[in-house]
Each structure stands twice: as C-alpha cells, then as structure tokens.
Amino acid sequence: MSIQGYPKEATLKDGRVVTIRPLANSDFDKLYEFFQALPEEDRLFLRHDVTDPEVVGKWVEQINFDRAIPLVIEDKDKIVADGTLHLDSHGWARHVGHIRLVTARTHRHVGLGTLIARELAELAAKQDLEKLQSQVIEDNVGSVKLFEKLGFKVVAVLKDLVKDQKGNKRNLAIMINEVADLERIIENWIQDSMIPAFRVPDDGVE
What we know:
Elements lengths: L7 E4 L5 E6 L5 H10 L2 H4 L9 H9 L6 E8 L2 E9 L9 E8 L8 H15 L4 E7 L3 H9 L3 E11 L5 E10 H13 L15
Parallel strand pairs: 5-6
Antiparallel strand pairs: 1-2, 2-3, 3-4, 4-5, 6-8, 7-8
C-alpha cells in the first residue's frame, strides 16, 4: 500500500509550522531520540519499552503499510509526535482500526495531539474503517482525556490486565469511537476555534 498526500505542513496554535509524514526506514535516530526525551512518567504507560533500541529498530525496519500506518510529526527536523493506525485486513474485526499516539511534552496544549488524531482518522476513512479503538492504561489520565475529547468512550475496563514498565499491574481501558463521528468532531473544531492549528500553507498547487 502506498500512502498518498505526504509530506504536508500544518500550523500549530502557537504559530509553529510542523511537517506530517509517514515513518521511514531511515528514522531510527530521530524516533529513538524522541522516545528518550519523553519523561519517565510518560514512558511508564507505553505498551513497549522504548528505551530499548531493538524495539525502536524493529519499528523502523519492519514498516508494512498493509498492517500498520505509522505517522510522525516533525518540528525543525525533530520528531515531536508519533501515531499509528493498526489495521486488520482479515477476520471479524476488519472494519475496526486501532490507534496509538504519543506527543512530546514540549508541544502539548497547542493542538498537536488533535492534529495527529485527525490524520489517523482521515487514513481510517480512506481504508473504509467504521470504528476506531484505543487501549489506554486507565491511570494515564492525559491520554484518556484526549481520547474522550475526540469522542471516544470507555466501553470496558479490564482490571489488572497489563503491567506498566515498572511491572506494576494496571487496569486497561478499552475506548471506542465511530470514524464518521471523529471526522465530524474534528471538522467542527477546524471551523471554530481550532482553525489556526490546522491551516495548511497554500503552495499554489491544488
């Protein structure tokens, strides 16, 4: 599968211009640096140990857009957000996509999380997906609030199902949203107060 329409630019609410593009095989150094810069409390809730270079290495070496579409957002050649739409082309959940996203602390509260969520929603719509799912540790309040802001609802909480990076058992929240609802919510933001965060500079090409 080829991913069309990238790279592209968008302007955050604070005026910074960022670039959105698919992850590339050459991105190991940038992606590893991004994860190492995350505070420990943020890495604690991630599914994988991103301090392990082998973990990050596999992600950039084994890119397969038929199974997962990873996007990154760059600010001045540094990755500041990472998001992935996971696909299941076969089986009874082939209409459901799974999304994960992480943003840098230096770029929060400026529309970055919403920006990458919008991109993932657009990709989901192009794949004819109907629903999006996110699995979030219940104690990760920031992520839960972001997904709730995007219209996701907690449909189940599985007690002590997962362990954080320190080995502590945590509850896993399963959050679901309709792709069409997410697109509508984000478009309403664009038309209202979020317009500056999503303005794509006009390059004269339609």
